[in-house]
UniProtKB/TrEMBL annotation:
Signal peptide: none annotated. Residues 403-449 are annotated as: Disordered. Keywords: Transferase. Residues 422-436 have a biased composition (Polar residues). One of its GO terms (molecular function) is glycosyltransferase activity. This is Glycosyl transferase, group 1 family protein. Residues 437-449 have a biased composition (Basic and acidic residues).
Length: 449
């Protein structure tokens, strides 16, 4: 890297999900790192049906972005698309965001004429297939960036990644200092914000929590922001409470609408998840002065950010009675919300502002640039597809022909166009979750800040 050249990074990310935590993170990363002297490009993958950068960019005004287009749906096509983007953008670092084929494409660029290119993977989840990817591609990766301390530990223990090549870089949120807040009025206003699905978010804990709250005699309103595959069943389980207005479904809302319609109006955010790597919405709630009642989800232990009866109220995952009891405390104990709010403000200011997040990324990206190149790494060749063209012509020529004739292949969904992982471990793998929970709880109280 020449001294007169700005350091540069290209984040390779999906474009199929216009409203997501990843999109919110990239929205502040580009200008934030830019203000610290980086050239930042958002590489948005493109496919024939689901990944559409031109639609994504309407809601995300990135100054510098590049479409990484593969219409054939083959792995070889995806690797070639990444190689082309690298040849045009010429970054010092390629950081992938749930895009394992971008790892392989970047490594192939590195072995064919770009030996100084650094290749990194960013980790935003605790699903087993992600750490299977790290284990498979660790010899190719210069660094892994994790947004949560448990994710760092999993990358080391389950992904067999050297701890010296793992960086902890939490998310950040806007925080302009404490905002004026009123105490609860005629009822306790509660918000649930997130995807409406059971596996991770445990949304079917919400109806029994509300039933227990009613038994305790706490007046309430519940606003639910988000959508997902289990919304219909959740509505049904709430019964007449939706019709009489005690519970309102808002659908998926933008970050601006979240602040205006939800966080500015409610008293408490309720989180029921089994695992999280943030979540960003907790930090957003705290920054807005909203109290947090949360499960002690996998991912909250080693991170050591949420502390019961200090900056949040906690309950065991799945313990709906305890969740309701914590909500009751907010209604009955006059000064509790104010006390939690002040501690939450301190946490956000010290650890989870956008400025802190960007400064962490700046420091760790610079360390990556100074890091010696990998001594040796497996070579990545032409990726073979299973179609008739490949058998007749070979993988390379077959892909060239597909590109020439505009072949698009079958519709495999967003994850078929650009797979989010190559791992095959099932999400519900019991041994993974048992080990993960053990890692998160061990010495959690002593985790470094």
């Amino acid at each position: 890297m020449q001294n007169n050249k700005k350091p540069s990074v290209m984040f390779v990310a999906p474009s199929a999900y216009v409203l997501s935590g990843l999109a919110t993170w990239l929205d502040y990363m580009e200008p934030g790192l830019g203000s610290l002297g980086w050239d930042v490009t958002i590489g948005l993958v493109e496919g024939p049906r689901h990944h559409r950068p031109e639609k994504y960019i309407v809601g995300h005004a990135h100054r510098s972005w590049y479409p990484i287009s593969c219409k054939s749906g083959t792995q070889e096509g995806r690797l070639r698309a990444v190689e082309k983007a690298i040849s045009v953008v010429n970054p010092d670092i390629v950081a992938t965001v749930n895009m394992p084929d971008a790892i392989l494409g970047a490594v192939r660029s590195r072995q064919y004429g770009r030996p100084e290119l650094k290749v990194a993977m960013t980790v935003h989840g605790i699903q087993p297939d992600l750490y299977e990817d790290i284990g498979a591609y660790g010899d190719l990766l210069d660094r892994v960036f994790c947004t949560n301390r448990l994710a760092c530990k999993l990358a080391e223990v389950m992904g067999n990644m050297d701890a010296g090549r793992i960086s902890h870089v939490p998310y950040g949120v806007e925080f302009d200092g404490p905002a004026p807040r009123s105490e609860p009025g005629e009822c306790l206003k509660i918000a649930y914000v997130g995807r409406l699905e059971q596996d991770q978010k445990q949304i079917f804990d919400l109806p029994p929590i509300i039933e227990a709250l009613e038994t305790l005699g706490v007046p309430y309103e519940l606003m639910i922001a988000g959508n997902g595959p289990d919304e219909k069943q959740l509505r049904a389980e709430f019964g007449s409470r939706v019709d009489d207005g005690r519970i309102t479904f808002l659908g998926f809302i933008s970050p601006e609408e979240l602040q205006r319609q939800v966080l500015a109006e409610v008293d408490v955010l309720l989180l029921t998840s089994s695992w999280e790597t943030g979540p960003i919405v907790i930090w957003e709630a705290m920054a807005s002065g909203v109290a947090v009642v949360s499960s002690n989800y996998i991912g909250s232990g080693l991170e050591s950010a949420l502390h019961d009866d200090d900056n949040a109220l906690m309950f065991p995952v799945g313990d709906t009675g305890q969740a309701a009891a914590q909500l009751q405390r907010l209604w009955c104990e006059a000064s509790l919300i104010a006390r939690l709010r002040q501690a939450a403000y301190r946490l956000i200011e010290e650890r989870y502002t956008i400025a802190v997040s960007v400064a962490n990324w700046d420091r760790h990206l610079k360390a990556l640039l100074e890091q010696p190149s990998l001594a040796s790494a497996p070579r990545i060749g032409t990726q073979q597809a299973s179609g008739r063209l490949d058998r007749l012509l070979g993988g390379g020529k077959a892909e060239s022909l597909r590109s020439l004739i505009g072949s698009t292949g079958p519709d495999g969904g967003a994850g078929g166009e650009w797979p989010h992982s190559h791992g095959t471990t099932e999400y519900g793998n019991e041994s993974f979750w048992t080990k993960t929970e053990q890692l998160d709880r061990r010495d959690a109280e002593g985790a470094a800040e």
